[in-house]
Write a structure and sequence with these properties.
The protein is built from 25 helices and no strands. It is mainly alpha-helical. This is Tetratricopeptide repeat protein.
Length: 580
Amino acid sequence: MLARLFRADAPSVHSHVAWEDLPDEALPTPPLRDGLGDAHLSVTTQVPLAQAYFDQGLRLLHLGWALEARRAFAEAARQDPTLAMAWWGLALARGVGQRFTADRAEAIRKALTLAEGTTDMEQRLIVAASLLADKGPANGRHAFVREMECLIDRFPQEPEPRLLLAGFLLDGYESDGRPGQGQPYAQLLLRDLLRTHPHHAGVHVAWVQAWLPSSRPEMALESAELLASLVPAGSPALLAAGRLLLRMGRAVEANRILEAAVTADDAYLARESLPLDVAPSADTALRLLSEGCVEVGQYRGAQVWARKLRQRVEASGGQPQAVLFAATTLVAAHLRFGFSRAAAEVPMDLGDAATVAEAGLRDAVRLYARGVCALETGRLGDVERACATLDALALTLSEAPRSEGRALCPRDVARTVEIAAQELRGTLDARRGDSGRAEAALTRALRLERRLRPVGPALFCRPPRETLARVRLRSGREEKALELALERAGERPGCGHCMLLVAEAHVACECMSEAAHDFAVVLDLWRDADPHLPGLQRARGFTARGGRSRAALRRVPDAAPVDTAHGPRGGAPTWTVHGG
């Protein structure tokens, strides 16, 4: 259906939320709300409240807030049972997948039954949606696009058909950077809408989503910055904006907008006394806040946000998937700063209700963290056994049946486990002095990482590209290591860890002036970092010695983990990668 608009960029923290299985007629009545934009589409009704609730559902549809859009469309249908477009909206908000096929079909059937006597635009929108309902998004794609193009041609001044078609066509980017089939067409539609309707919040949300997975996220920077004022109550839009700002290294702005998303969700829940798992964005925003602290060198701040997420998950009932996501957020922070023992000791008690995918991801995270611990203490046999067990676990998960909806899919988990196994094996081979085997394993990990589905679980191991770059540095392939480091830093320009790797690669290549520039960038990115961060001390040591030799990069022992800190303070503006 048109609910391709609701495709997730990341898996849901909660595998199930309140109301998801309720029939449309049983959904609780929502209040009319401000701060969601001003999208409007005139529909055939004599009931003002029905029009108001339909418009609210349309605005929420553009923001990607499916659950709340359903409530608004259901209330529009209650206010005017003859409103065909209310059932059209209910069909869209139900989402993709087999679970709700019957619900979508029934909603479209009611919309078609009530469509007689409505405007030409309404009838064409309903017919277009019915084409997808009959044939599915894959088989009905061509017919749907042709019907929407006809509608756009007939009503060239109306933004909603163009925006809905653009949302359907947003296909993202392939692993090699090429746009998906409908991506350029969608971007052309959106570019024209930005010109004709510069204050339409839904257009800016779609524009951010169009460029977020690309190599040029800066194309949507202006839209990301506008969304905080256009939709202050639309936390899914704020989440998308914060994600794009993080990609661009704008940590201060990203933190501010992600915190606003959490605040908006909390206000929404408090206003209606709703359960925590109904909040659409707060949990993911807390994960991103933790990741943002990691990038700007705030280990303690990353722990603060990860623990806030854990507390929120426990307060909402502690679903196994939510507990796991909260735990892996903290594990990722520990591993990024080299504290593998702390990562291995993070509690992940999922109880007896865990699915195959949840139990598999928990076991994989534990195995990987313990394997890294064993590697650091020289117990190479234990590392070999961890790799073999991870391989077996990935095979088992890949053969499990797929899951639908919000639940973790075993096959997606299998892909992340396979990457972790290859990354750990590559590091083990490098420790044994077999750089050829190490590079082969890490290259496989890198290729697998590029093919990960965006809706799968977050990768919990160290970034394979960075590990491969460090292996190449140790094996004398400095130029190749520098290429990888620059590529990685170009994707995460605000990440001090990536810039530190670029600086060390420049030192290995005897490019001291470039290294001095890079270390200056690291120091600025980490100006609010924890003071005992080893990489920060290396950067200061190099700068203090004027960058005259490799000796300035001598290793500093890792500091012990510190669990108490004030909240994070943000990061730094975007930097251009030297040599990129």
